[in-house]
Design a protein that fits this description.
- The structure holds 3 protein chains of 3 kinds.
- Chain A is mainly α.
- Chain A contains 20 helices and 2 strands.
- In chain A, helix 12 packs antiparallel against helix 13.
- The N and C termini of chain A lie close together (about 10 Å).
- Chain B is about 65% helix and about 0% strand.
- Chain B contains 3 helices and no strands.
- In chain B, helix 1 runs antiparallel to helix 2 and helix 2 packs antiparallel against helix 3.
- By secondary structure, chain C is mainly α.
- Chain C is about 75% helix and about 5% strand.
- In chain C, helix 7 packs antiparallel against helix 10.
- Classes of the chains: A mainly alpha, B mainly alpha, C mainly alpha.
- Chains in contact: A-B, A-C, B-C.
- The interface between A and C is large, with 140 and 129 residues.
């Protein structure tokens, strides 16, 4: 059995452990470990994305009795996205010296990556909870990195709200275990269709509770309240990294919505889709109005991020392979676009020169879904997948307009009305990398979407995923 | 017994939620503690109730479901870590802000 | 490939100014002009084929799954526009080189200009409507940058944003419209779409598609009521106005109407919407132009009016009208671009654009005057210039269209057009010479040559329309209508053509109008006019304000509100999910209620309720919550969960201790502040959710799992497979050891976070010194307690070791052991105070956590050596009297990692509190 599957989880943990043990007082060593570790994670992700669907049985216990990791196209994709973003953000952090503004940045950062990777790889529902907690607690640490009243107070809200989410997660998991006697996701996928039609109420409750947990992560209205304060008050690079945090929620919604509670499951049927759809529309509205009506840039980006989650989940809520493929493309796009904007916002605090303005324009274009960047492609993919749904079209297009006007106004206020070049210029390498990633996403949209289409088809017919768990005990 | 436990879970949940809805950090933390008791008990009963049947192999002839207990253990530890973090953060917020209100201003930069 | 290259050339050119600007303006301009000229040459290369009616296409797959491909086509219509874009583009580049001030960022200007050129060229060359949309939106964006070029001017910023908002909104509508069109046809390729007239016009989606597409076209081409942005776009430097806002970009909407003419036109819907929009725009804008005093404003409204004219012609849906439209596109581009450039020259020479302050320039600026006369008369439609030819064709078409209001309005518009043109010319160049600040004179040839070339074209096309423009109009019209067209453009059609009489009427009327101008102007000035900008600004402000208020009210920073919304959602959706399906009644037998647990549970419930009721007294509430925790531990013990009981009780002690220490800094009383109504809301939410949770718990307890639980495997394999008697322990260190691995990471992170936060708190100045309430009286560290706890510590350590070792078979394990150790230290801390803790700060808690993580990780990795997955355990039993038979397993090593992490985390948290306490003790030190 290949040990590669576990490395995205334990490599950052070991490196973080090493930092705490031997390098906690030497910044350069921490930076080196952090950068090398992130590059290694990127290399791992590139290797794994080419691998076939496979599993990894922790402790050598067969599924569903032990915990299984399952690598499929989707999880590999999320690993790659995380590693790419992580490297970009890390470069920005080091070049701008954010990591010197508090202790333990690098250890927390690596733990954060561990949590994310763990969540994307696990094939066990309870283990997903554990890694949610790992990534959350690391994010709490990163969120309040550097301290300050506003940040800590926003941090308290962030922690408290997510604790409610975690508690809900446990309620949902307990209900699932109590009804079905299992926690392995593939096992659930096999067993749920056998539930008698006259006894589905409890599993439906569990499904809804679980989806609500993921909706908290994905900042779906009305569970989005935690996001603006958190993103706007987090250190710039951390807000950029958090662009992938909401995607964890989206990932889990897609995973459970296609594997465990697909729309052809008699017990839940279209229950989740029918709840997700209006929530996604409301999320688009709240995000767009927030972007349009807010003047402070970080907060505005936070709302734009909410809006993009709405668009993404609107596509998800269709639960068709085409829409899912579009949603996946949009996931890649909106993560990188949000991150780019947050990194740029970080630079604009002291200096607003022409170069930064150009970068802002590019990132804002991407975020608002204007051509030529990937936002436009993503938007077209989603519109095409949702053809015939006039409400969805109107929502996406109007939101796009409001986002564009809002970001244009802020940009013109920042760079045209009050340009400033007094502070020394800071490194823009990371932002350029991020925009380059967006450009790649655009230019290579053809091959990427064909790959994503296969991914989406595999998600909607998850036989390979289930088979990889060897539930019959045959290895 | 089951009715009693259900009532206990319900009460703990209700009390926890009510405290979480208060406007100061300390009651919110207490509320979250109560809520975590409730959920621990809830996970525990997902394996149902069996008296005098601890899952120690070799002691007795029947065992209660050990898995929920293991899950509760994990949940307890995690919620312990989370509570500790929240306590210190709340303390930090109080020390820097001079008060312990949980609500923040909507948009400090936006008031103009 | 060639077409894609042509489309790419301007974009490549856009990259060069950054590199060439150091060599000076001329080099930079020449370089970009080279790219434009190259594109032009490549287009001309295809000319012979296009003239004979061929279409050149290039296909590059970009996103075949969606149908978005880089497909280009060059036919007559594209040719006409490409020639305009590139030809006038060259002139504009030359003009701009001399026009812009030396201090201005010229390289940036050129870049924007080339970006626009590429986008515009892309629109006309696209053979894929999604690709066309890409370029379409790009023109809006580059126009935004160019209008806002003088970004220090508020009107530039506002004009830029207004243009972006308006054309952007139209662009989004057009996305929807074009995508619907593509869905009807089943392809986004124009080549396919243009063959599907019947399918499109019979589709029920025709009307929505048409309206959405027209929204895009009308906003771009400034058709009423979306015309308002164009005059404000005049804040851009004049070369931009000449290029984008008269000759090219604003014609993109017309291009689209012409492009889709074969499949969209010919229906009553098309006719009525397009002709009326065009006609109203034409007449209305001409009227406004008559009363404007700013040179560029007059030209801007004139442009709007002429765009209306072309729209009107396209709306008519006849081939003759289409021919006229195409011809007027060409004519208008020549004279209007020239006029804008000339207006720029006047502005430069006199430093004003207000025609009331101008006059008499014919002597000072003869060249400018001559050129302006030609272009203005063409704009007015005076023979023998090209503007006359196309206007005649328009009037001829109008004359043959019912109802009567159409020819009347067309004539009226022509009349106004003559009037404002003459006013423009006479006010600027004729009449007395006002006092100019310095004497105006003709510019260098660099500035007047470009308009001169255009003026020459105006004259030449007027004189010899067929040889000079006939072939182009034929090619473009044929491509537009899809059928071979041979236009007959001539100066003289005979006396019986109605257009001649309409023209004459217009000219006569115009002279009368100008004669009455002062009176008309007084009426105009006295009539209140809805100012489009005011309305636009007001609606945008109102919308922004609404959005802002909505957002601020929704996201008011209230955590309680967020909680309430979340709880309500969870409760509602949970209930909905439950009641919308069936559930079998539970059938398990109830466990008997014994007296002791009943009392215990009653106590627990009472304590919880009391804590809630008395929560304002914080210490009391904390103790009550602690009591709840303790009874919960006891319940676990009673309910066959000794491990849980042990863990819960130790965690409880440590948590309460930590919170007690924290409470030391916090206010002891929660102030009264929540209103009664909110308490009621909170209480009902809480009680409702409590009842639902209780019901759910009861329902679950009353039934068996539908499938046999996987824990049967754990019970069966605990001893033979994992080598432990305690199934709970084997699950957490072996079957699900990976969960535990994650869990200790959580604890480790918690400790790091607490440490880092404390560091940053110590670095910042505290807002207030927490008030120490008077209740703290008495000796803080009673000697009895100190002594007692010093004894407790070794005992705690002994117990901890014991629990650690027996964990695999009996309740216990690394976690509990770590906590028991920690309890010993915590008690010591409470008893002896921070000084004692400070003295022990040398203990490297960090190292403990790091080591714990590494020990656990490497224990797991160890199994790689045997080729087994992470955390595969290996064990052997060891019998060490007098201890119980215990096992030495890799799981025990793993448990050691757990132990280290737990102890390190708790101690680090404690240490943090101790250090926060330090600044105070400086004051209170006893």
């Amino acid at each position: 059995m290949s040990q590669l599957l576990i490395l995205p989880v334990i490599l950052p943990a070991i490196l973080a452990g090493a930092i705490i043990l031997i390098a906690r007082n030497t910044l350069n060593a921490q930076r080196a470990i952090s950068i090398l570790g992130t590059i290694a994670l990127l290399a791992l992700a590139i290797t794994l994305i080419q691998a076939p669907t496979q599993s990894y049985f922790l402790g050598n216990w067969p599924a569903p009795f032990g915990i299984a990791l399952v690598l499929d196209r989707l999880s590999a994709l999320m690993l790659l996205l995380t590693a790419t973003l992580a490297l970009i953000v890390l470069i920005h952090t080091i070049r701008t010296g954010w990591d010197t503004k508090g202790r333990h940045f690098h250890a927390l950062y690596l733990f954060q990556l561990m949590g994310l990777n763990g969540a994307f790889l696990t094939g066990d529902a309870f283990n997903l909870f554990v890694f949610f907690e790992v990534l959350l607690i690391a994010s709490y640490g990163l969120m309040v990195h550097g301290g300050g009243e506003a940040r800590i107070r926003a941090g308290v809200q962030y922690v408290a709200f997510n604790l409610l989410g975690s508690t809900l997660f446990l309620f949902a998991l307990a209900t699932i275990y109590s009804t079905t006697g299992t926690l392995n996701m593939a096992d659930l996928a096999q067993k749920l269709p056998q539930i008698p039609a006259n006894d589905t109420a409890l599993i439906r409750v569990a499904a809804v509770l679980l989806m609500l947990v993921f909706a908290v992560k994905a900042a779906l209205v009305p569970l989005q309240f935690w996001l603006p304060g958190t993103y706007a008050n987090a250190p710039g690079p951390i807000a950029a990294l958090f662009a992938v945090m909401t995607k964890v929620g989206a990932y889990a919604l897609i995973r459970f919505g296609t594997l465990v509670f697909p729309t052809d499951l008699p017990a839940t049927n279209t229950l989740l889709a029918s709840l997700l759809y209006p929530a996604a529309l409301a999320t688009i509205a709240v995000g767009a109005l927030g972007t349009f009506g807010t003047r402070s840039l970080p907060r505005q980006i936070a709302f734009a991020a909410i809006g993009s989650m709405g668009t993404l989940l609107l596509a998800v809520s269709a639960f068709t392979p085409q829409a899912t493929a579009a949603a996946l493309y949009y996931t890649l796009h909106s993560t990188l676009a949000t991150a780019a904007l947050f990194l740029i916002a970080d630079l604009t605090r002291c200096r607003r020169d022409g170069m930064t303005a150009a970068l802002y324009m590019a990132a804002a274009i991407a975020m608002a879904g204007m051509p030529p960047l990937s936002g436009f492609v993503g938007k077209l993919l989603i519109l095409d997948a949702l053809r015939g749904d006039a409400i969805a079209w109107a929502a996406i297009l109007i939101a796009s307009l409001l986002t564009m006007i809002g970001l244009a106004r802020t940009g013109s206020d920042l760079f045209w009305k009050s340009p400033s070049t007094e502070a020394p210029a800071e490194s823009k390498t990371a932002i350029l990398l991020c925009l380059a990633a967006l450009a790649t996403l655009t230019i290579a949209a053809g091959p990427i979407t064909s790959w994503l289409t296969l991914t989406a088809e595999a998600l909607h017919a998850p036989t390979a995923y289930i088979a990889a768990n060897h539930l019959g005990g045959t290895k | 017994m089951e009715i009693l436990i259900a009532i206990a879970i319900g009460t703990l949940t209700a009390c926890g939620l009510y405290l979480m809805l208060r406007a100061r950090t300390f009651p919110v933390i207490l509320g979250l503690s109560l809520l975590s008791y409730a959920v621990n008990l809830f996970i525990f009963i997902s394996g149902r109730i069996k008296l005098n049947a601890p899952p120690i192999i070799g002691e007795g002839s029947q065992y209660t479901d050990p898995l929920p207990q293991a899950l509760v253990l994990t949940a307890i530890v995690i919620s312990f870590g989370m509570t500790a973090v929240l306590v210190i953060m709340a303390l930090g917020a109080y020390l820097t802000a001079g008060h312990d209100r949980v609500d923040t201003d909507a948009d400090p930069e936006d008031q103009a | 490939m060639s077409l894609a290259l042509i489309a790419a050339l301007p974009f490549l050119g856009a990259l060069t100014p950054a590199l060439t600007q150091r060599f000076g303006r001329s080099i930079a301009t020449l370089t970009v002009a080279l790219f434009t000229a190259a594109a032009l040459a490549l287009i001309l290369n295809h000319l012979p084929a296009i003239i004979v009616g061929d279409t050149v296409t290039t296909q590059i797959n970009w996103l075949p799954a969606l149908g978005l491909n880089a497909n280009f086509r060059l036919d007559g219509l594209a040719l006409l526009f490409a020639l305009l874009i590139l030809g006038i583009g060259l002139l504009i580049q030359a003009y701009a080189c001399f026009y812009l001030d030396k201090t201005e960022p010229y390289a940036r200007f050129l870049t924007y200009l080339m970006l626009f050129q590429g986008a515009m060229l892309g629109i006309v060359l696209s053979d894929n409507i999604l690709l066309l949309l890409v370029f379409w939106e790009l023109t809006s964006l580059s126009s935004f940058l160019l209008i806002g070029f003088w970004s220090h001017l508020p009107q530039a910023r506002q004009g830029a944003r207004m243009a972006l908002a308006t054309t952007g909104a139209g662009g989004l509508a057009m996305i929807a419209g074009l995508m619907i069109l593509g869905h009807i046809v089943g392809s986004y390729d124009l080549s396919t779409i243009l063959t599907q007239k019947t399918a499109i016009q019979t589709s029920p989606l025709y009307l929505p598609a048409l309206i959405l597409i027209l929204l895009g076209a009308f906003t771009k081409s400034a058709q009423f009521p979306f015309h308002f942005w164009l005059p404000h776009a005049m804040a851009a430097p004049t070369p931009v106005s000449a290029y984008l806002h008269s000759a090219t970009m604003v014609k993109a909407g017309l291009f689209l109407l012409a492009r889709l003419w074969p499949v969209l036109s010919g229906t009553p819907e098309w006719f009525w919407i397009v002709t009326s929009a065009g006609l109203i725009t034409m007449a209305f804008a001409a009227k406004v132009a008559l009363f404007k005093d700013d040179l560029k404003a007059i030209l801007a409204y004139s442009t709007v009016s002429h765009l209306g004219l072309i729209t009107f012609l396209l709306g008519l849906g006849t081939k003759a009208a289409a021919t006229a439209a195409i011809f007027h596109i060409l004519c208008h581009a020549t004279f209007k671009a020239a006029l804008f450039m000339l207006a720029g020259i006047v502005d430069h020479a006199t430093h004003t654009r207000d025609i009331r302050a101008l006059g008499g320039l014919r002597r000072a600026m003869p060249i400018t005057f001559g050129l302006a006369t030609i272009a203005t008369l063409s704009m007015a439609g005076i023979p023998p210039l090209n503007g006359f030819l196309s206007k005649e064709m328009m009037l001829e078409e109008a004359a043959h269209t019912a109802p009567w209001v159409i020819p009347v309005l067309a004539t009226l518009a022509a009349l106004l057009s003559v009037a404002y043109s003459l006013r423009f010319l006479t006010y600027t160049f004729l009449g007395p010479i006002p006092a100019y600040s310095h004497s105006p004179h003709d510019p260098t040839p660099g500035l007047w040559l470009p308009p001169a070339i255009l003026a020459a074209l105006v004259v030449a096309i007027g004189a010899a329309p067929m040889p000079l423009a006939g072939w182009l109009v034929d090619a473009a019209t044929s491509a537009t209508t899809g059928e071979p067209i041979h236009a007959h453009i001539a100066l003289w059609h005979g006396l019986e053509t109605p257009a001649l009489w309409m023209s004459l009427a217009a000219i006569g009327g115009a002279l009368v109008t100008l004669g009455l101008y002062p009176a008309l102007r007084r009426v105009w000035d006295a009539t209140p006019k809805p100012q489009a900008k005011v309305i636009f600004d007001a609606s945008l402000t109102a919308l922004t304000h609404t959005a802002h208020t909505f957002t601020a009210k929704l996201h008011n920073g209230s955590l309680s509100r967020a909680f309430a919304a979340a709880v309500l959602t969870i409760l509602t959706l949970g209930l909905y999910a439950y009641q919308s399906a069936e559930s079998l009644p539970g059938s398990r037998a109830l466990a008997a209620i014994a007296a002791t647990p009943a009392v215990g549970f009653a106590l627990m419930i009472t304590a919880a309720l009391a804590a809630t009721a008395l929560h304002r007294k914080r210490l009391l509430a904390l103790l009550l919550v602690g009591i709840v925790g303790l009874i919960l531990s006891a319940s676990f013990a009673y309910l066959s969960a000794p491990d849980l009981a042990l863990t819960q009780i130790t965690v409880e002690v440590v948590t309460v201790a930590l919170m007690l220490l924290a409470l030391n800094f916090l206010p002891k009383i929660t102030p009264h502040e929540t209103p009664r109504l909110r308490k009621l809301r909170d209480a009902s939410l809480a009680i409702g959710t409590g009842i639902a949770t209780a019901a759910l718990a009861y329902a679950l307890m009353m039934r068996e799992a539908i499938f046999p639980p996987i824990s049967a495997f754990h019970l069966a394999q605990s001893l033979p497979g994992a080598g432990g008697h305690n199934a709970v322990n084997t699950i957490i260190v072996d079957f699900r050891g990976y969960d535990t691995y994650g869990e200790i990471i959580v604890l480790g992170i918690a400790a790091l976070l607490i440490f880092a936060l404390t560091e940053s708190l110590l670095g910042t100045k505290w807002a207030t010194r927490p008030d120490q309430s008077a209740g703290d009286a008495g000796d803080p560290h009673p000697i009895m307690l100190q002594t007692a706890t010093r004894l407790i510590l070794p005992m705690a350590m002994l117990v901890g070791c014991y629990l650690f070792l027996r964990g695999h078979n009996q309740p216990g394990g690394g976690f509990v052991a770590g906590l028991v150790f920690a309890i010993g230290f915590v008690l010591q801390y409470i008893a002896s105070g921070q000084d004692w803790a400070a003295a022990r700060r040398r203990i490297p808690y960090h190292a403990m956590i790091g080591a714990g993580v590494l020990v656990a990780s490497f224990t797991g990795v160890g199994s790689f050596l045997a080729g087994r997955p992470f955390l595969t355990s290996n064990y052997t039993h060891i019998h060490l009297p007098p201890l119980q038979d215990f096992e030495l397993a890799t799981a025990a090593l793993f448990d050691l990692g757990v132990f280290l992490c737990v102890l390190g985390a708790v101690m680090l948290a404690l240490d943090a509190l101790a250090r926060l306490a330090k600044p105070q003790t400086a004051k209170d030190a006893c």
